[in-house]
Amino acid sequence: MNNPAILAMTVLGGVLSAALSLLHMFSYPGLVFISYLATLPLFLVGLGVGLWPLYGAALIATLFVLFIEGPVFAAEFFVFSALGPAFLINRALLNRKKSSKEVVWYPSSFLLRDLTLASGVIMLLALGVYLYMMQGNDVHALVKTLLETFDPQGHLKDAEPVLIKIFPFLPGFFAFSWAIMILINATLAQGLLIRFKRNLRPSPTLENLEVPKSFLILLGLSIFLSWVGVGSLELLGKSATCVLILPFFFVGLGVVHRLIQKTPFATVGLTIFYIVLFVFLWPALFVILLGILKPWIEKKISPN
């Protein structure tokens, strides 16, 4: 690809990313969900053209948001929509050549670890904002105010007790949602690039995913703090639990893939599994448990 084409892709990627991000300014509800695809053009540029064009596209997008919405929204876009793709693609494109000329790419397990660490940073930022908002405020009063603002007719009044219970999980849930959207956009971008044979690296796989043993220790500590912690420690425990279940969920998916692929109806089995997972959601808990128990399970399913 020549320099003018790379420049055009950089500018186009930045403009599209900013345009998608700015859709939340309009009153149509569906556009808010489309705005979650704001990182997709950045992933397309990074995974299809390279790192420096990605950095340029991220800068262009941030400047567009700055000119239209101001510094606060530009800073938000830069932190949550630009830095994530820049960091992950920087890791994803790392590779080395063996003596046999075979290219070895940055492992999938390392990418999952790095995404989890990035989510932890996002969680800490969200936790800081949460604590700042809660200074001198009672959770019950804050939830009531939010319901009065977004549901003046009182249709969700019965949901108030549930919202009060889940409210302390918001920082962790925000970080978890951020990571999921990053993964969705990265997967969509890689799929499109492979379809048109423009991908710079092969797709990472779910099989043989592993997480550092320290993550399991941290998960146990987070769950403990969420039960017995008080104040900020309880909030930290609940938020960290939301983040730390993420890698075990994907490790569990890898175990499910390995188990189902050993059957004669692998494609049908995986299709049914994902339909059940998306419809009922609770099987995700089973998948997370599989991810935690993987070291013991893989001994049972190993061909040796």
Keywords for this structure?
mainly alpha; 304 residues; 2% strand; two-stranded antiparallel sheet
Describe the structure.
The radius of gyration is 21 Å and the shape is globular. Helix 6 (about 110-135) runs antiparallel to helix 9, helix 9 runs parallel beside helix 11 (about 230-260) and helix 11 crosses helix 13. Strand 1 (about 95) and strand 2 form a beta hairpin. The longest helix has 30 residues, at about 230-260. It contains 14 helices and 2 strands, in the order αααααββααααααααα. It is about 75% helix and about 0% strand. About 30% of the residues are buried. The chain is mainly alpha-helical and about 300 residues long. The chain has helices spanning about 5-20, 30-35, 40-50, 50-70, 70-90, 110-135, 140-150, 160-165, 170-195, 215-230, 230-260, 265-280, 285-290, 295-300, and strands spanning about 95, 105. Strands 1-2 form a two-stranded antiparallel sheet.
